Amino acid sequence: MHRRDFSSCLATTAALLATGHAHAQLGQGAQPVEGRHFVRVNPAAPVGAPAGKIDVVEFFWYGCPHCNTLEPALEAWTKRLAPDVAFRRVPVGFTAVHEAHQRLYYALEAMGKLEAMHRRVFAAIHQQSQRLEREADQLAFLKAQGVDTTRFSDFARSFGVQTKMRQARQLSDAYKIDGVPTIGVHGRFYTAGSLTGSNESALAVADFLIGRVRTRA
Prior knowledge:
Elements: H1 9-18, E1 39-40, E2 54-60, H2 65-80, E3 85-91, H3 96-111, H4 114-126, H5 135-144, H6 149-156, H7 159-175, E4 182-185, E5 189-192, H8 193-196, H9 199-214
Parallel strand pairs: 2-3
Antiparallel strand pairs: 1-5, 2-4, 4-5
Helix pairs in contact: 3-4, 3-6, 3-7
């Protein structure tokens, strides 16, 4: 999914699948290759993790079918990460549609509702065909989920949420990513299923990159 051409998510998905054979599959036991399975970020992107922690970021969009498919494996993977790894999700804001979902994410986070609602948002979009791009549609969905929509609206318009949205855009620009889902590692590298051939391979490459950062390779 290219960052400036999201007019048709389904069309882009079909294009990625059609060109999937051109992407380098990571073979069993093979070591990832720079420029083929992952990209070095130069200059390095900012690191948001505390000192002594390895910063790992998943760039995603709620409307992306690949992000939705990755989510169960990603959740399991994050639970296996070592204590020196700090994982976070960053919703991209490439277009106005992405910004609508980005605002939804950060408002739920500010309310303390993100953990309960994150997978429900994916399900609403990809299983129940709710686009959740308009504020009215988001409010109707959240009301049905028992979320205080007045508080949500206040948070969605808050300075704090606006700041996080701006910071998310700055970080995706610093990583120079052109699609989602993408996994960034400590501002130095990123990988994605479109590079490795599958989401599972991308997580394996992310493990490899975490190891490189850990050993300062």
